[in-house]
Amino acid sequence: MTNNTLTLALLQLPVGGDVALNVRRAAEGIERLKAENPTLQLAILPESFNAPYGVEHFAKYAESVPDGATCQALSRLAQKLAIYIIGGSIVEREAGRLYNTCTVWAPDGSLIGRHRKIHLFTMNIVAAHGGGVQFDEGAALTAGSELTVVKIGQQKVGIGICHDKRFEELARIYRNMGCSMLVYPSAFCICQGPMHWELLQRARATDNQLFVVTCSPARDNMSGYVAYGHSMIVDPWARVQREAGEGCEFIVERIDFDMVEQVRRQIPIYQQRRTDVYAKAEPKADP
Q1: Out of 71, 92, 117, 246, which one is annotated catalytic?
Q2: Can you give the pLDDT at residue 69?
Q3: pTM above 0.90?
């Protein structure tokens, strides 16, 4: 990282039932992007990039972290290319439990972050004409309970996974911990995407005056769970800096972290927060 900038890549990849193929496709994509962009410093993969996403698939494709085949492939690749890799997410198995886990790898191949999805995705949307869409990660997965902040070059980066970005408290804590960028590998479903995908990312960016980055699988309308696509980079002004379409697509972009300090200096909401007033409010139970 030089001059307070970072060159990163988002790999919006298709995901099928062959784990080895999915991992090989990701590795080959990162290698190609690094060859084409020698200054590339960080590659970001989608949520559930190595196997199909679905409650019925989680146990079948679960691996151990960090000694499973997928993690070892990412470790070797990070070391070979001397870059950081945010490894989307895989289903992790530990002590009889399953977690939706994002791993972060340093240029020396070491594991520097492991984020277990804190907020498990539950959805029960009823359509006006009858029917609807239901999904419950908690039927198979265990929620994580730890925050994850990693150092990418000189920047602190907060890690979340998909549904985690709906919770502004998590993003605010990361900002309070000194983060200048939040990264959410996300397999956001197609039924919510048009309403909330961009909205949530721009909200987290403007609330906390930092970069928000998401990486989605490519859309497959024939899969049981259809991801929205539209991997995105939102800047601290809450402007969409780059956005992918629906299919397989790679984005390489330069991030200028000077913008974070510029925005925070020009609109100093962090210093203006009235925590003394907020603390007086009586907490109310959710309905």
Answers
A1: 117
A2: 98
A3: yes
